[in-house]
Amino acid sequence: MSKKVKKNIEKQGKNSFVNYIISKKELITIMIGLCATLYPIVNTVYKIMYQNECEKFYGIPGKYFDSDIDNRLLYLLCIIILLFMGIMPTLLKKYYEKKDKLTKGNLVEAIFLSVIIGIELGCINVYNLIEIMKQTYRTCEVFQKINNWLDNHVYFTVTVVIILGSISVLGLTLMEHLKNIKCNIVKSVVCVILSVSLIASLVVMVYGTIFKLSISIKDKSKYEFVMYNEEEYVVLSTYEEKILIIPFEIDEKEQYIFKTSQYSFINQDKGLYKYKNIKYSPIVDLNAG
Question: Alpha-carbon distance 282 to 189, whole Å?
Fold first, then answer.
């Protein structure tokens, strides 16, 4: 087949793909319009739920609080994209196999891509594991001990999670090649390692994402503080260009106690601000005098 004929075939293939996309433009337009219509509705519902939750937890009128769903939607979108990227090396390898072009170079390319994407998956799972730990440390003594152990072995934990991510994506890519392993013992060991890596990575990914998206105001542990009139206050919200502040105290267990019945408003340009992670969600004292 001459080069000219090959170019014409490739050109026709590209044109067919473009024509297919164009033929679906009405459907794409409808989907974009539907998303644009649903977003403000979903965001409004989320805002109302957030205000009600804040009012119940802090004992302060919900109208003083505001939030949107953008960050959670963005996080969910990133997870979906990352999961799609996780199967890209497998799709790439199958594409080469279908075209009978799976050379050693192409296989190495797919393996390299699997490792890189797996590392990214592992890094995201480190963050997901932190979210899981935040949500489980208060559930029972067993989880407290597990969380303490993970805290005391941070570098080991991070390394293992990242390695599991790489192995899981690599395992998906090379799954069909396992049958070429002649030694049954080696094949069994490899299958167990790949299965454990894939299951562990998916569990951390799924539960971490669920905890991240379902986190409530009661679980919040990062707050902004302001030094005003030689006193330090917690900043809860911004309302009509002013900030809502409350006094607080810290008990002998380093647990923060928010005195929300004494809330007040000050101008945003007053005081010195500081961002803190108080580690544990605060205790709210609704009746502090």
Answer: 47
pTM: 0.63
CA of 102: how far to CAs of 83, 108, 174, 182, 221, in Å? 24, 10, 13, 22, 51
Q: What is the full per-residue pLDDT of the chain (289 aa) written as tens digits?
A: 444 444 444 444 444 445 545 555 666 677 777 767 777 887 888 888 889 999 999 999 999 998 887 778 888 888 888 888 888 887 777 777 776 666 677 777 778 888 888 888 888 889 888 888 877 776 677 887 888 888 888 899 999 999 998 888 888 877 777 777 777 788 788 888 888 888 888 889 888 888 887 777 887 888 999 999 889 999 999 988 899 999 999 888 888 999 998 999 999 888 889 988 887 788 888 875 5
Bridge partners, residue 279, by sequence = none
Residue 245, Cβ density class (10 Å: 0-12 exposed, 13-18 middle, ≥19 buried): buried
